[in-house]
Automatic annotation (TrEMBL):
The keyword Transmembrane helix does not apply. It holds the Pfam family GrpB. This is GrpB family protein. Signal peptide: none annotated. Keywords: Coenzyme A biosynthesis.
């Protein structure tokens, strides 16, 4: 996305295919580096309105090796993005001035209890909560909130829903925005 507008789209049934294509490209490029790769985020929840950006999460046995070889992602259009989070590597794919994909690379130890994966699965099985989340995102966009403030504006509901998702797995609540 450009930095001066926030766009929320109706669910696009093409998003899973776009994610599958990106996952296939990543697996072909880093066959022995990535243990798991999944489509996460709102574009991975059927029926949910979302920013039209495909979020992916990958588990790597050796994130240091991923970082060492990150230049290999350049032909796919991914560039490293430093956002202050110390628990993952983050890459963005931009076409023109539009962000199209985000790739989170995490260690395999944290993979099973990643908030993003748990929330995605929760929203897939709780359509009323998914609808609440979609409505909130549309209200945020309609209010003219800048993309830089978008995540913070969603925090209360995301925390509530993530806590529910974690509880279903017997996991304690944790802050949704990792440091």
């Amino acid at each position: 996305m450009s930095t001066d507008s926030l766009r929320i789209d109706d669910y696009d049934p093409g998003w899973p295919a776009a994610a599958a294509q990106a996952i296939s490209e990543l697996r072909a490029r880093w066959r022995n580096l990535l243990i798991e790769v999944e489509h996460i985020g709102s574009t991975a929840v059927p029926g949910l309105a979302a920013k039209p950006v495909i979020d992916l999460m990958a588990a790597a046995a050796d994130p240091v090796e991923v970082q060492r070889r990150e230049a290999e992602l350049a032909p796919l259009g991914y560039r490293r993005h430093l956002n202050g989070m110390s628990d993952r590597l983050l890459y963005v794919r931009v076409r023109g001035d539009v962000r199209t994909h985000i790739l989170h690379v995490v260690d395999t130890a944290s993979w099973p209890h990643r908030n993003q994966r748990l929330l995605r699965d929760y929203l897939r099985t709780h359509p009323q909560d998914a609808a609440r989340y979609g409505d909130l995102k549309r209200r945020i966009a309609a209010a003219g909130i800048l993309p830089a403030d978008y995540a913070r504006a969603k925090t209360g509901l995301i925390q509530e829903l993530t806590d529910r998702a974690r509880a279903q797995h017997g996991l304690p609540p944790v802050p949704v925005w990792e440091k």
